[in-house]
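#struct-pred

JT: dropping the chains for the assembly here, can someone run the whole complex?
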Amino acid sequence: MGTPDMRTAIITRLRAGLFALCLLPILALMTGCPAPTSPSPESSGAVDPSGLLVIKGSDTLLPLSQEWAQEFKKKHPNANITVTGGGTGTGIVALINGTANVANASRAIKDAEKKQAEAKGTTIMEVPVARDGITIVINPKNPIKEITLDQLKGIYTGQINNWKEIGGPDQEVVASGRDTASGTYAYFQEEVLGEEEYRQDMISNVSNNAIAQDVEKNVGGIGYIGVAYAHEFTRTGKVKEVPVAFKTGEPAILPTPENILNGKYPISRELFNYTLGLPQGITKEYLDYVTSPEGQAIVKKQGFITLK
Amino acid sequence: MRSARRSPFAKAGERVITGWIYLCGFLSIILVVLIFLFVFKEALPLLREYPFASFFLGTKWIPEPARGDPRFGLVPLLASSLLVTLGAIVIAVPLGLATAVYMSEIAPVKVREYLKPAVELLAAVPSVVLGFFGVAVLASLLQDTLHLPTGKTMLAGSVTLAFMAVPTIATISEDAINAVPRDVREGSYGLGATHWETIWRVLLPAAFSGIVAAVMLGVGRAIGETMVVLMVTGNGVSRALSDTMAGDFHRVFATYLGLCRTITATIAAEMGEVVQGGEHYRALFMLGVVLFLITFLINLVADFALRRAQRT
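RK: done, full complex below.
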């Protein structure tokens, strides 16, 4: 039955191991909490355009925001800007909790979030920074030529489970989407699902990239990705963009810049930056730059659509 | 041992150091209690806003609904966590035990010298790296060979978790088998038992308590794992799982070929976006409490098994 030595050794190992295991979930919880040492939004209130600017939020806006920050730093070498993603919800929560100065958002702020800010004694200010469409992507092997908003709703709420139901091949639908932190997730739900709930078996991804990979791998796959991001994947032929129609019988439209700007493309939106209170100091400088012709030129260059 | 020659300073120093070591010993207990209290304190207010039964019996997890009230149903998450772990154990226990038996009883010394460190090294592979492997290789492989609509499945999660549990199970079981006294082994041969009979009828039963401990450690590692399942299982609730929860229990096998959404993955995916003190935040902490209780239970079972084995 084993020596006492070996038993003690095993019990010790067991205890140590299980103890560490007990800590794991807690660590997971704690890393999710914002660090208390991050700058408060007021710290950027100085007149000096140098200083720290923390930008957080939408993954859709991330590449655009990074290039703005880079160009802005060239003009203001003393400015120290960090840009991170995580999703619109993450950014707005960080703004309210005081761990970010600017929240990148790919949807308008929710009433609940406004109330949370008011409960902390501040108000949230909104600055539109660009426009964006949402491209619907499918697997290149899928012969579907166009899709209507109703069909999209059916697919993402779970009423449509096979492509043959909408004139495609006999192939099970595999819907990919974003996680709940994403602004694109919330916007798509509001605009396309008519505020119904997403199907329970949607694959929830933490990035646009992961959605594209899903659709590339799954013959029955479908996904939604911001236009600027989608270019990257449609260009290489890994996924295929589908024209979208408002209703059956109406023409299906591709998400080109013109179609998005003149409102012909059914799923387009404004992208925002949010601040706590009126922007001041480096935050104001940065937002002025973003909305300037120079900043908007970058919008166009990256494949987003400018405000005007 | 105190001696009269020592100065009072040395005595005081000794006392400080003894006290310090004493404190270190207790620190882990204090930490675990404090952490549990913290998680529990953060979670408890949920039950004021959200009914107890709806949390523990609810079959839908919709934390940020477009309309209406959020729903925090534990059942799909708990079922996913348990099923994915069960799958991992079914794969990992035979593999791990076989590895242990081979390493301790069959392999020549030369092979064992290289094999044991290699297996231990496998335990040190970061879980994110295994997750990459799971997504890039395993999921595609399963998708192609089983003709699945998507490779992100509970089965892919179970197999990747099994990779993580095998080294734990193998090394600790091997320790246990090795620790069986020589007399027992020689007695068995002396009675005319073959090599295989000795392993199967004598060594494995003798090392049983250690093997139970090894398996429990493997279970613990699998159920607490976050990154792998987040990356490989698609983080959704498959129709098979929905059917199973609705009472169609023979669909439970089909759940392995669909998505799943475990407790750990849900916490990791959603913690970043919640407002501190909000209902969603409390619900995630409540998930933490549930996870804590599960690992505690595993610990208890392992301890119980060890004690029982020691008595007989």
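JT: nice. The longest helix of chain A spans residues 4-32. Chain A touches chain B through 62 residues (CB under 8 Å).
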